[in-house]
Amino acid sequence: MENLLFPLLLVALIVPMYLATRRQKKEMAKTAAMQSELSVGDRVLMTSGIQGIIVEVDETSIDLEIAEDVITTWTRSAVREVLSDDAYDESDPVAEVESAADDTSATDTTPRLNKD
User: Which of 25, 54, 55, 57 lies in the 20 to 30 Å Cα band around 83?
Assistant: First the structure.
């Protein structure tokens, strides 16, 4: 019985490590393929959380328009994902917040200096 314990222990440790490595390689290959297929006009999400539209593609870098007339240069490896057109909402979040603030009426307008 002791002769079987060590080989079973090795198998129990090696199999999950192999499966995890295999899954990680698949994800890396998928990400590399996505980054190599970037083209002008794609809406992308960067690893830093910035969203923008690709305006120029080089061999190792991309130029990203993050606001009107604001273009930044990034490496291709900084792209996390390509966003679909329905993932981007054209509505203005600032205007929505301002209109929501106008709708609420404050009953007590005196400033409070403490939490009581």
Answer: 25
